[in-house]
Amino acid sequence: MDKTNIMADFRIMGDDFNINDINSKLLLSPDYCWTKGEQIKKRPGFKREYTCWAISTGYEISNNVNNQLSKITSRLNNKSAVLEEMCNMLKLDYRFEVVINIENGEKPAIYLNKDIIQLASKIDAEIDIDLYIYS
Question: Is the pTM here over 0.85, yes or no?
Answer without folding.
Answer: yes
